[in-house]
Write a structure and sequence with these properties.
alpha/beta, eleven-stranded mixed beta sheet, eight-stranded parallel beta sheet, 28 strands
Length: 284
Amino acid sequence: MTSAGYAPGCHATAVVDPSARLAETAAVGPYTVIGPDVEIGERVRIGPHVFIERDTRVAEDVRIAKGAVLGSDPQDLKYAGERTFLEIGPRTVVREFTTLNRGTAASGVTAVGADTLVMAYVHIAHDCLIGDHVVLANGVTMGGHVEIGDWGIVGGLTGVHQFTRIGRHAMVGGGARVSRDVAPYTLAGGVRTRTYGVNRIGLERRGFEPEAIRALQTAYRTIFRSGEPLRVGLGRVERGELTPEVRELVRFIRDSERGVTVTRIGPDDDLPPEPRATRAGSAV
């Protein structure tokens, strides 16, 4: 029986800490363990052999499949036992054998938004912030402090370096190695990851107007494919008329601390410096 098929209540073999708070309409499958100070919302369905360690907030209508581990201690050498949290937004689906760690003192929380799909064997590390409507395919693994914007898609078996950002409506192909920020509205992929253009099909499916997509494509070509240094292309775009999407694209690149993923493969002498490229004590 799937987790969606369980009647409300806890299976006789489930172990629930007395301090955990479960909605009456929630269902907990066989051999699942729910630890202290866990909150489970209305109509949540939790499958068998799930472990929710502690200090986790699961919103309404979430589905958690067999063998998932949520709210476990951060895999960070700096973690000293401070109280931190994991938050899962409404209607999110967490599939088999995923691992989602709580935050550290750096931010206090790891958060996954609403209507997000976390496929099997995904690892979401400490202090990650995952937006709404995100899709993380099987085997995505991320280090600490990763940020993925709303409607982002990350393909299977992709590794995402700590402190890296993936912008809204961006799509990263499977098997990529993401060590620099991926700009919003773009496509990226490859072991030596680079961008390939604007996520046109994804934007069309989400109802973006053709004019907005064309403006993004024009800005993308100016910034990434003009053959000029990145900062020069940004300046040229900023001197023109900016749509809201192009303004977001430019601001994301300007705010990047790791540098952004570019189209070419080679020396990255036209990218911002990496003051936070490595943080001791944080592990994937």
